[in-house]
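Progress report, Aim 2. The chain analyzed during this reporting quarter is listed below.
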Amino acid sequence: MYLGCEAAEKGWASVQNHEDGKRVLSDGVEEELLEAEGNTRARTYKLKDFIEESFTIKASQGDDEGAVWRFRILPLIENSPIEVPENVVNICQYGFTEMLNNVFDHSASPNCILSYEQNAKRIRILVIDHGIGVFQRIQNDFGLDDARSALLELSKGKLTSQPRRHSGEGIFFTSRMFERFSIGSEDLYYARTKYDDEEWLIESGDSEEKVKGTIVRLEIPLNAEWTTRDVFKQFESDDMRFRHTHIPIKLALYPNEQLISRSQAKRLLTRFDEFGEVLLDFQGIEEVGRAFIDEIFRVYRLDHPEIELLWLRANSDITQLILNAMEAIDEPPQ
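Predicted structure tokens for the chain:
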């Protein structure tokens, strides 16, 4: 093991208090795995990106994203001073090629900026284009009211304007394979962060930085234990079809609004009939209206008994509204 990696694994405090801590940190700097900041007494150390590669390619429909991976990104991984586990390589290949293929087929961007960064603990990949923007493209292709509606639909999966060429699964699965995923365009962004307890921090909404085109960030630790197959299995039925989806309710929420109406619920319910099971995530939602819940958990369930609606992270008040709506289905007519 590289000594710099040893420092990273032990943590800075424990290493600096260790009797060999100075030697470990010094060797880490010499190996270019760590970088030091400050003078001797107040010196701090952080992991250094020992691979930082960025390049620009032309982007046109029909280009081969696999070739870009094979000849430009994979050699960086294979020549890394630290071995990258096979499962991490496979995840990077899936996410990179899916995101780059979206640029080629959907962005109408003349070029694409690609970046690969690696240190002793993680890999970060960026895919940047200067095209129409992912949310604007979805809004245009599907006749949606605005870009925020496009963000909601994108999160569900199975969304594509070219069904002969795409399954509409790429962004959905990529966002769940990496420990950190974000996609931003104009003033909107969507981000997911994976926790050790298998839960996700889901962020969405307005970005302080306005992005012309689309920027995708993918990040994964080198010690990730999951595989691409593990992620696929979470959302497949027994016949290996994409049948389950996980939808953050907060994506249906506009600034300065509350989720109270049936029309808001109907917007959320769009395309639920493409799935056998829908998991509704109430993280970050403190209050909803009775009509909103009733439209989802009573009216929609009566009309679509074949679709299983599940929920998580709802507070006690929202949970009670859900249970009341579901119990009303079984009540005899008055």
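The chain has twelve helices and ten strands. The chain has a mean pLDDT of 82. These observations will guide the mutagenesis work planned for the next reporting period.
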